[in-house]
Amino acid sequence: MVLGVDVGGSFTDAVLLSPDGLAIGKAPTTPRDQSEGVIAAIEEALAHAGAGAESVRRLVHGMTVATNALLEGRTARAALIATEGFTDVEELGRQARPQLYRLCAAGPAPLVPPELRVAAPERCGPNGVLAPLDEAELSRRLELVLDDEVEGVAVCLLWGFRHPAHERAAAAAVSDSLPAAHVSTSHETAGVVREYERLATTVLDAALSPLLGRYLERLARRLEREGLPPAEIMLSSGGVAPAASAAAHGSWTVLSGPAGGAVAAARSAGDRDAVALDMGGTSCDVSLVTGGRVAVTGGREVGGRALALPMVDVHTVGAGGGSIAWRDAGGALRVGPRSAGAEPGPACYGRGGDSPTVTDANLLLGRLDPGGRLAGGVALHRDASRRAIGRLGAELSLESEQVAAGIVRIAGVEMARAVRVVTVERGIDPRGLALVAFGGAGPLHAADIAEELDMRELIVPAVSGVLSALGLAVSERRRDVQRSVLLAGDALTAGAVAEVVEELAQRGREELGAPEAQVRPTYELRYAGQGFELDVEADPAPDPAQLRRIFDRLHCERYGYEDTAAELELVTVRVAVALPGADPFPAPPVPALERPGRRVHLGGSWCDARVLGPGSARIEGPAIIELPGSTLVVPPGWSGTADGDGVRLRR
After folding, report:
1. How large a percentage of the chain has pLDDT more than 70?
2. On the chain, which terminus has fewer CB atoms closer than 10 Å, C or N?
């Protein structure tokens, strides 16, 4: 059996795959220690399967420890060692304003304060050492700065990604001065060109790794007590790695949670290009699926901080089931980004929350079953939702049902805006794509979002409520390695590129412990003189002419022109070394398609709520389809089929 466990903002999901079928467990997320909710969800899944812990062969875990620490500013105390003259790079950044017309708006504060920045007496250039590292002087400076409260140290020297000897020596000096501190070196964390992005990533790694290491230690102890195997961790790139690798580089897991859902959505889309929309209790994650695989980027910003790492290309907005509705200073109804979270949760959970949320609005409108129960036995209290929304309605001079409809509408518009970011803003027409909706709240709003964007096809997997956990269970074991090479002109040859690919592939296979692993290279290319690159996937020993043709076509699609006279430059080579994940097993037996006796007024008409079951059934909107862990709203004008795999709709 294979277990996938995903920690969300409100609930923790577990999916147990076996040759006999699939079992699901759900438990409220425990923010103080996520491992408590993880064990509770696993126990429920094992109970449903009638299995014991000894039956589990693998356990794959996606969590939000690093993400939450980054977004909430609860990182470990970290220091920085940088080349003399470059210790303030994180604070200087790119000198780009976060908002173009707000001159006073600032980016996030640097993670390393000035008093913890240590200048390393050394200097390298692209071709080697210019001034050797003065190790004695560096040790003296470290003694003046480092104290027992420093938990992590980032080492990022100017040309460390190409000549790492000085970084290794600096890391050894830190270990001598402060043995308990975690040390992150830039050539191991993010060995790429651009000193700001590389330094920001290394600093973040040093600030997150101690926190992640402590969490994984607690989790390992709990798993061992329960007789479960050690956890493998989902990385931001969409592959899984041993817990020890994740603990050594916390920055690699910043998008651990969303990555699992994106991987599963790509499988659910089949041969269709699609947009994956994962709406949970706290946020909504949107990603693009092309050619059967989720898009991976070589770097991006998370929480306003640069990360120069291979990551699933996910755009996140603060719109989830727990997003709080409020009246702004101008009298307008707003939704999010503040969330009721798992504790206390929406007002309808009856756990002390009194703020009106998206979930309360859906319950009040009848889109959720008022007699249903959520994970952990949480009952839904419609009267509590009415009171919370009624107070907001009094502020807005509107009836409760009007406010609830407005909340649902605003949340849908916010999520549609997120879809536009990964499609329209990149020159991709969403009207030709399918929308794969999942998460506890995704199917509730999927059709509204599709109509907002004039999308005509909707795919909702049968286990959409726990699809991220399923994605973890079927994800490939993977290691991503990269190196900036800066090859152009006569130096850009098939042999030179193949040599780099083979070197990176060998390193990845060794770290993965799998000589037979597949190799998938990606080349970051640009025209000479450009500041940024486009990703091109090609053979491990690519013909430069082939790279040129692919890049020209991609550049034309993205920017509307190609420059056939410009020289092509290969900046960075990324290699994914991977072992295939588990194949999905048969779906479990579920109740036959039935009408549970609940009628809902939807789209101007009354309809019966129905429960998805095996076989195939025709669906005509308006309809409410109750799925394991989620509810699908089918407005008028939509129709399609439902079977054991899920629901496919068109309009």
Report:
1. 96
2. C
Single-letter residue type at 192: V
Q: Compute φ and ψ for 130, nearest 5 degrees.
A: -100, -40
Give the Cα separation of 367 and 600 in Å (integer).
7
Mean pLDDT to the nearest integer, 391-411: 94
Yes or no: say if 371 and 348 are a contact pair by the CB < 8 Å rule.
no
**In this predicted structure, what is the pLDDT of residue 433?**
95
Higher pLDDT, 106 or 521: 521
Alpha carbon of 507 to those of 200, 504, 511: distances in Å? 24, 5, 6
279-336 pLDDT per residue, tens? 887 778 899 998 888 888 888 888 788 899 988 888 888 778 888 999 999 999 999 8
Residue 618 Cα distances to 251, 266, 593, angstroms = 46, 25, 11
pLDDT classification of 583: cutoffs 50, 70, 90: low
> Which of these ranges, 97-101, 190-194, 235-239, has the smallest mean pLDDT?
97-101
Alpha carbon of residue 428 to chain centroid: 21
Contact 336, 408 (CB under 8 A): no
Q: Report which DSSP code applies to 545.
A: H
* Token couple for 248: 């050594």
Distances (CA, A) of 102 to 93, 94, 99: 17, 16, 5
Counted residue by residue, the chain has a size of: 651
Residue 587 has pLDDT above 70, yes or no: no
Contact 114, 80 (CB under 8 A): no
Q: Is the pLDDT of residue 422 over 50?
A: yes
Residue for token pair 């550049």: 555
Residue 376, pLDDT score:
60
Angstrom distance (rounded) from CA 273 to CA 434:
7
Instruction: Check residue 379 and report its DSSP letter.
Output: B
Could you tell me which residues come within 8 angstroms of residue 116 by beta carbon, excluding any fewer than 6 positions away? 77, 78, 79, 80, 145, 150
Beta strands in 406-470 (DSSP E): 434-438, 457-461
- Cα separations (Å) of 484 from 197, 400, 418, 501? 13, 57, 31, 12
Which residues in 497-514 are b (16+ Cβ under 10 Å) and which e? Answer: beebbeebbeebbeebeb
Spatial CB neighbours of 329, under 8 Å, sequence gap ≥ 6? none
Rg (CA), the chain: 25
pLDDT tier at 569, thresholds 50, 70, 90? very high
Nearest to 11 by CA among 387, 467, 584, 591: 467
- Strands of the sheet containing 630-634, edge to edge, are 599-602, 605-611, 623-627, 630-634
Helices (H), 97-194: 135-145, 165-177, 186-189
- 480 token code pair: 């991503």
22 within 8 A of 15, measured Cβ to Cβ: yes
| Through-space distance between the first and last CA atoms of the chain, rounded to whole angstroms | 39
Secondary structure of residue 154 in the 3-state scheme? strand
CA distance 176 to 96: 38
Q: What's the angle, vertex CA 339, arms to CA 335 and CA 345, rounded to 5?
A: 120
pTM: 0.84
- Predicted confidence (pLDDT) per residue in 356-390, tens digit: 999 999 999 999 888 777 766 678 899 999 999 99
Does residue 411 sit in helix, strand or coil? helix
Rounded CA gap, 358 and 411, in Å?
Answer: 7
- Residues 609, 623: Cα–Cα separation, whole Å: 6
| Joined tokens for residue 95 | 């000198």
